[in-house]
Amino acid sequence: MNQNHPYKQRSYFLALSYLAGWILVSLLQYKALTNFGIDFYTAIVDAIVSNLCLAGAAFIVVNNMRYYLPGKERYWYVVVLSLGLSAVWLIAIRGILWIFFQDNETYMQMLSQSLYIRYTLGFLLIGCITMISLLWYTQQNDTKAQEKKVELEQLAKDAELFKLRQQLQPHFLFNSLNSISALAGSQPEKARHMIQQLSDFLRGTLKKEDQQWVPLKEEIAYLQLYLDIEKVRFGHRLETEILISEAAGLALIPPMILQPLVENAIKFGLYDTIESVTISIKATMVDRDLQVLVSNPFDPTNHQNAKGTGFGLSYIQRRLFLLFGRPGLLNSSSQDQEFTAQLHIPQINFEEQTKLS
Question: Is 256 exposed, middle or buried (0-12, 13-18, 19+ CB in 10 A)?
Fold first, then answer.
């Protein structure tokens, strides 16, 4: 794990805090003992032995909490553990100090008289260490659980995005193969040309599988392949008008998100007429975000046109929601016998783009 990881930094801070606390308590105990007339050597040994044993108790507590975090019984567990360890700590220092100073009757008498005070202070200190360790590892586990939850949600989101993109290709491929089949008998040259264009288009699709953001000008170049295929199907009936501002061409956009809009425009603009139809694609920057307008002729008397958005628009709405976490980025309107789909793509900063791409 990287040493700059927040867990590492906080662990170092906690370890330094324990060390500073141990030194401070040792100094305070030494000062208190000398105030009661205990000589320098005895006070030093008493403070070091007592607090080394206390450090051992703290080590036991910290490792216990690392591998076992109590549930609902945590508060009772903290009290019982602190009482038990305090008793063990008191017995340990009583025995060790007796070995050192068994011939010093004055000190041994003072030690016996201070056992209750020592036990109380030991209980408070060990209890504090136990609570700090409990909170520390509980927070650490909660953070890891939250990170895992976010990671699983992201994996689920990526899987759904991938599924949506895979659904789009068979939808387009089915239409293209039908057109190739229709051309194969009557216009084999056009059929061969369309197969070549379809091959180039699908090859470009494979290159985009691992990309989450591409410049709009790159997406338009890719979209032109799709339009060329559709122009083979519809001939002179399909005309396009593409107006992209220089700033908009550099804006980032999810790959293959314009194709369903254009496919939808062709479907509802050409299928019910024998006249030539112009599909308009315009892109500008609005409040530093990208806005793309895809327009096609609209016949309000046709029930199918008035009703539907089809697979394409629902695909885009779902994909945008998964990417940006908010609705309302795709809107549609009809006016003066023209249907317009308005796509709004928020532009994120470079660091976020790098993480998401």
Answer: buried
Distance, CA of 207 to chain centre = 25
pTM beyond 0.85, yes or no: no
Taken in order 97, 99, 105, 109, is the CA torsion positive or negative?
positive
183-238 pLDDT, tens digit each: 787 778 878 888 887 887 777 666 665 567 889 998 898 888 888 888 877 778 88
Q: Which amino acid is at 206?
A: L
Largest pairwise CA distance in the chain: 118
Tens of pLDDT, residues 85-100: 889 989 998 999 899 8
Q: Which domains does the chain have, with CATH numbers?
A: 6-148 (no CATH), 187-356 (3.30.565.10)
Residue 340 to residue 311: CA distance in whole angstroms: 16
DSSP 8-state symbol, 187: -
* 46 touches 106 (CB < 8 A): no
Asked if residues 129 and 62 have their Cβ atoms less than 8 Å apart, the reply is: yes
* Beta bridge partners of residue 244, listed in sequence order: 283
What crossing angle do the helices spanning 216-234 and 188-207 adopt, rounded to 10°? Answer: 160
For Cα atoms 221, 172, 342, give the angle at the middle one, nearest 5 degrees. 60
Calculate Rg over the CA atoms of the chain.
37
Report the alpha-carbon distance of residue 348 to residue 354 in Å, rounded: 10
